[in-house]
Each structure stands twice: as structure tokens, then as C-alpha cells.
Predict the 3D structure of the following.
Amino acid sequence: MTWMASLRKLHPDDLDQVAAVYRDAVISQAEGLYSPAQIAAWSNHAHTSNAVRDALSRGYGLASCAENDPTQIEAFGLLDPIQRLSLLYCRGRSCRQGRSSTILRALEHHAWHQGCRQWHTEASQLSKPLLLRLGWRIDAEETVMFAGEAFLRWRMIKPLIQPHGGLDNQQAETIGG
């Protein structure tokens, strides 16, 4: 399937779609990496916690939308605060199309222009391989309790370098530079 990069800014009124993408991403991609109890706890988090709503209100995020429906979010990434990749999720049906990489490049471009020179995040087993491919490095491994379940995750960091190109003028205008 050919996918054309189309990004837009996330807004607090996107919460229902963001929560739906979050849930779909976990349910469709975490089997075999996490137990059924972990998947249930994690997939419900966006609907049962204020953390996602609060991050969406405070942070800067981008959405990748369906080609045939620009209002339908297929993937999203969120910085909260600007130096922390807080959330990165993609619907199962839209995985492996370059959406997450495109979002990360655009977020990196934005963060750099906001004065950020290093990112950090806490990566799941789902996001760790992508982040490693994109130049992130593992700072530490940790186990955390999340919605009553223990999860292994990795604190990761990435120095930001000055973007050279990366976004074309149409993409920069679409996401507000």
C-alpha cells in the first residue's frame, strides 16, 4: 500500500481519536510481547486515565491521517514537554507504512526549532526497535507498575542534530512549521 505523508497538529479535541488509536495499537500489536493482563491494562489506559488528556492539552503533537479521510487519525506522536517523546502510537492496519518515522522526523524538526537539543523517552517493547533504528540509545532498563501490572521498559535518549531539509514546504505549512 502506498501512503503519502500528510501530517497535522493534534488538538485537545482529538482526545477520542487519540484514545482509539492508542487502544488499537496496543491490542493489535502487543500480542506475544505482553501478557493478556498487561495488554488489557495498557490498552484501557487512554480511556481510564487523565494522563493522555493532560499531555494532549499541554504538549505538541502530530497526527498522520488516512489518505481517503483526512479527519481519521491513523498514527500520532506527542512531545510533553518538548524534550520528551511522551506518546507514539499507530493503528495496526497502518503499521509499517512509515507513519511513525515521518511523525518522529517532523517532531524532531519542531523540537530543534524550539531550542531542544536532546530528547528522552520511556520506550515499550513495541517502540524500542524503531527508536533504535532512528538513532536513539538506551540509557537504562527499568520495570514500572502501570495500571496494576509490571512492565519492562527502556529509558532512551537521542541527541538532536540540526535538521537539513527533512520536511518539504507543504508539510511544514500543514503542521504549522
Observations:
- The chain is about 35% helix and 30% strand.
